[in-house]
């Protein structure tokens, strides 16, 4: 639809028609994406999946500024396995910062920051 540049109303209607035409193509993509995400979420309900929710002890590798977790190196259901995984991680990467946590509770950290002053 071509409209005179001076006719703002026709130009606006033309833009709305183009927007509607463009969104029709996205509609099918969105519904397909929704279907796929829904199917994946349903798979998480599968009782045969490993119960990672009960793996509350986590060994985490932090970024160099100790602001963000870069990677969860290990998740364990018991604190003793968590300690073993922590020891293995610090032995393999002694120059990195690691924590062993259960939720927000800090159990161990490497290198330790206790006693450091700002």
Can you characterise this structure?
This protein has 118 residues and is an alpha+beta fold. The chain has helices spanning 8-43, 79-92; strands at 57-62, 69-76, 98-102, 105-110. It folds into 2 domains: 1-49; 52-110, no CATH class. The chain has 2 helices and 4 strands, in the order αββαββ. It has a 4-stranded antiparallel β-sheet with strand order 2-1-3-4, with helices on one face. The model has no long low-confidence stretch (mean pLDDT 81).
Largest sheet: 4 strands, antiparallel
Order of helices and strands: HEEHEE
Give me the side-by-side strand order of the main sheet.
Answer: 2-1-3-4
Radius of gyration: 26 Å
**Terminal Cα span:** 66 Å
Number of strands: 4
Strand content: 15-25%
- Structural class designation: alpha+beta
Overall mean pLDDT stands at: 81
Range of helix content: 40-55%
* Count of runs of 4 or more consecutive helical residues: 2
């Amino acid at each position: 639809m071509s409209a005179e540049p001076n006719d703002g109303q026709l130009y606006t209607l033309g833009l709305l028609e183009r927007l509607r035409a463009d969104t029709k193509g996205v509609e099918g993509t969105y519904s397909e994406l929704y279907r796929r995400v829904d199917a994946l979420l349903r798979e998480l309900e599968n009782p045969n999946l490993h119960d990672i929710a009960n793996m509350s002890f986590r060994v985490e590798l932090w970024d160099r500024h100790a602001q963000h977790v870069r990677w969860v190196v290990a998740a364990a259901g018991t604190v003793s396995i968590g300690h073993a995984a922590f020891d293995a991680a610090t032995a393999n990467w002694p120059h990195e910062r690691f924590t062993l946590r259960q939720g927000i509770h800090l159990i161990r950290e490497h290198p330790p920051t206790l006693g450091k002053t700002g």
